[in-house]
Sequence to fold (310 residues):
Amino acid sequence: MKSYKVFISLFVLIIAFSIYIAGCSPAETTTGKLAYNSKDWVKAETELAKGLAIDKNDAEAWFMLGYSQIELQKFSEATKSFKNCLSISQDFSTQIKSFWIDKFNAGISDFNLGTKALGKSDKENANRSFTNAIRNFEAASSIIPDSISSYQLIADAYNYMGETDKALALYQSILDKSKSKEDAIMIAKILYTVGIKERQAERYDKAISIFEKVLTIQFLPKDNIYYETSLFNLGFANYQIAVKMATDGKTKSEYTPYLNSTIKNLEELTSATKTKELLKDSYEILYNAYDALGMKDKAEDALNKKNALQ
Fold:
């Protein structure tokens, strides 16, 4: 009889505990957590979302939902889930940080594989590795949105893949946050490289537009090599347009504005740079531009300064 009473008591406790669990956690949340533990990310996301629609105060459920969304590459949704998790409790902050480290390190591994493949001129495998790296870094930046290092490496990966516009957009967003000359220099380097290709292809107007952008990059030091060489190439591109127009029989009044721009750009450069080769090349172009405009004294002065650098 005594044992029967004990059995009844245990039975009552089990029922009471079940009622307690049901009251604190919706069935959908429980199902979602089980799916999460089984790494069934699709089911986990679906069920946890249903459960959290009923009870929004389950920090663990929000963490598991965010984790599942990252694995499903639903990055913006994951950011919101982790934010909700931490707004309820800081108990999962360590786990979130650990998850960020896992994704960031996976991105580094893929990134290194990409650079190695690129070094071997294996563009196909390089792009595959960089794509995987971007995916992992995007995951990391979604887990901890303020991780500038993740955005930096995403931009680097796009740059290596030749997706310049995507890389520049990211570098600009990084610069807006960091306000650092290092990030400004990276943007200048990419733009300068593109500008040189445009100038060499004789697409002078486009080259001028790009070099002008370099000169307006915020936080870029004016004594930086990319600033100075962009200023030189800006003047050179204007000069090449003037030469082409003159060769094509255009009137002096038509190509004079380009020569004036050449002089403006290169006078600014020669007054600031200490780089001997830039000075020599600048004075040579200035000599020709001054001479074409009938500015004989200035032309002679430019030639003398060039010769003094020999």
Summary: The chain has a mean pLDDT of 91. The CA atoms of residues 90 and 139 lie 21 Å apart. Residues 212-310 form one domain. The two ends are 114 Å apart (CA to CA).
